[in-house]
Specification:
183 residues; alpha+beta; two-stranded antiparallel sheet; globular
Length: 183
């Protein structure tokens, strides 16, 4: 078991975040219902598809770059699918089981994705913008989002209701610079 500088325990064998060995004070955002954050496997795909459909994300496919958070009791609690365009990871989408929303699972997944892939870009649904700003994300221009991701909003009949906002989750040094410039 290796512990990175942020106190998150990681195993090299599975490349998974093992939260079960941490005290509540060591856990990111106190998410005591999560066993680990790891890369998805084909066995996870049916649950990811069901969760995506239940969250009104349509029928998803292509899970090669998808992180999952698993319940202590087994099963998928949340997932974060990433798409790589021009060397930049785009979150498309992140879905957290409704019963666990507001308990830090999404924040832990985003942090794990950023640690693995570097800067993340994505389009936030309007109601989630506050959450993303809280964890350190910042709005960007639409042209900073890959057209393959941005086009999901262009054709969406719920665009006015959703009020999508293009955002990025910068790497830590850039995040500090953004925070300093806003102070």
């Amino acid at each position: 078991m290796n512990t990175s500088g942020n106190g998150i325990a990681q195993t090299h064998e599975t490349d998974a975040l093992d939260l079960s060995t941490m005290t509540k004070h060591e856990m990111p955002y106190g998410i005591d219902a999560i066993a680990e954050i790891r890369m998805s496997t084909p066995a996870d795909y049916p649950a990811i598809i069901r969760m995506g459909e239940a969250a009104d994300m349509g029928t998803l496919d292509g899970f090669e770059d998808t992180l999952v958070a698993t319940h202590l009791s087994g099963g998928i609690a949340a997932f974060c699918r990433l798409r790589i365009y021009d060397g930049i990871a785009h979150v498309n989408p992140i879905v957290v089981d409704e019963s666990l929303r507001g308990h830090g699972v999404g924040a832990a997944l985003m942090k794990a994705a950023r640690e693995r892939y570097g800067e993340l870009r994505f389009v936030a649904r309007g109601y989630a913008v506050g959450f993303y700003k809280f964890i350190g994300c910042a709005p960007v221009e639409w042209d900073e989002i890959a057209p393959e991701v941005a086009s999901d909003c262009d054709d969406c009949e719920k665009r006015d209701e959703c009020q999508p906002l293009p955002m990025k989750y910068p790497i830590e040094n850039e995040e500090r610079a953004i925070t300093t410039s806003l102070d």
